[in-house]
């Protein structure tokens, strides 16, 4: 009679055992993957391998530079010892605080105006296929242009003496002298607003295309007007896309460099210009690194808050 033995199992499959009385090991039975399991395992690792180039590029161009930036911002530029004084100096500086506050106000204002202007345009484009096929390619062109090109276009448009707008208004007799709005916060706001509206239209058009028009028709059938149906049905359903577009525009404006440098006056209205001055003009490199980390943390916190809102909103729906 066979002696009882203890069998170890994994997922119901015997892998090893030992006889109680004799202590003789029982031959192990290795787990065998079924063909379907093996195929799923192979497919999962195959697709993961395809993400390695993208992950490597992201680490090399984003994570590693930010890590180095953070490291050097915590090192004294002269003695090489660890320190937090650059963060303390930045946060305690009224000049940096005022410039950062101006940047936040600029980004928030541009974001709000861009969303308000883009919502009706995006809704119309989403509901009219022919109009969308004609205008979307035209609207998408500025998205492919760098901010340097957009800034130069604003210079050609708003320059005091050579700009198209001032020359046209003076020639028409509307103005007697040119308007100086280019090199200051109005010119920067116009440039950022132009770019922000384009981004918002591109995102919100796709969002409204996912909203079923029959929901609006049902609201109209129940007695709501067309405008009320849009405001109470389509707009709330487009809220996640609106939040995502707003977060993207805000982060883009806060971290922008090309437009503030091109359209900056003697007083830096944007924090990126202040960081540039500390880095190259004053040679306060580690102070500039700390200020760059502060701005990056601001942008990341906004996008994280937007992502948190989207996850909560989606789970409720």
UniProtKB/TrEMBL annotation:
The family database entries (Pfam families) matched by this protein are listed as: BPD_transp_1 (PF00528)
Asked whether the keyword Membrane is assigned, the reply is yes
Q: Which residues cross the membrane?
A: 49-75, 95-123, 144-162, 192-209, 229-250, 288-310
Q: Which CDD domains match?
A: TM_PBP2
- What does the UniProt entry say about where the protein is found? Cell membrane
Domain (ABC transmembrane type-1): residue spans on this chain:
100-306
Q: Give the CC-aspect GO terms.
A: plasma membrane
Q: How does it sit in the membrane?
A: Multi-pass membrane protein
UniProt keyword list: Cell membrane, Membrane, Transmembrane, Transmembrane helix, Transport
Q: What is its main location?
A: membrane
Q: Which GO terms describe its biological process?
A: transmembrane transport
The UniProt entry, under InterPro entries, shows:
MetI-like, MetI-like_sf
Top-rank taxon of the source lineage equals: Bacteria
The family assignment reads: Belongs to the binding-protein-dependent transport system permease family. CysTW subfamily.
* Name the record gives this protein: ABC transmembrane type-1 domain-containing protein
């Amino acid at each position: 009679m066979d002696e009882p033995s203890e069998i170890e199992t994994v997922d119901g499959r015997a892998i090893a055992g030992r006889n109680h009385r004799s202590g003789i090991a029982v031959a192990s039975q290795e787990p065998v993957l079924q063909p379907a399991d093996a195929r799923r395992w192979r497919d999962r690792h195959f697709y993961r391998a395809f993400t390695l180039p993208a992950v490597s590029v992201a680490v090399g161009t984003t994570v590693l530079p930010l890590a180095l930036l953070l490291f050097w911002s915590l090192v004294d530029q002269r003695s090489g010892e660890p320190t937090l004084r650059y963060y303390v100096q930045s946060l305690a500086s009224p000049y940096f605080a005022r410039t950062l506050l101006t940047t936040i106000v600029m980004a928030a204002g541009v974001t709000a105006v861009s969303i308000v202007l883009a919502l009706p345009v995006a809704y119309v484009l989403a509901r009219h296929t022919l109009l969308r096929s004609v205008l979307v390619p035209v609207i998408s062109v500025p998205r492919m242009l760098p901010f340097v090109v957009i800034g130069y276009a604003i210079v050609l448009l708003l320059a005091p003496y050579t700009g198209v707008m001032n020359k046209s208004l003076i020639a028409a007799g509307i103005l007697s002298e040119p308007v100086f709005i280019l090199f200051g916060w109005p010119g920067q706001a116009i440039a950022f607003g132009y770019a922000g509206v384009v981004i918002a239209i591109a995102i919100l058009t796709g969002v409204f295309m996912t909203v079923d028009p029959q929901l609006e028709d049902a609201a109209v059938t129940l007695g709501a007007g067309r405008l009320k149906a849009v405001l109470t049905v389509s707009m709330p359903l487009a809220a996640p896309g609106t939040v995502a577009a707003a977060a993207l525009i805000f982060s883009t404006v806060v971290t922008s460099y090309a437009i503030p440098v091109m359209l900056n006056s003697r007083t830096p209205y944007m924090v990126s210009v202040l960081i540039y001055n500390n880095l190259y003009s004053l040679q306060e490199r580690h102070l500039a690194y700390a200020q760059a980390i502060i701005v990056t943390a601001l942008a990341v916190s906004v996008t994280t808050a937007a992502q948190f809102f989207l996850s909560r909103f989606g789970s409720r729906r």
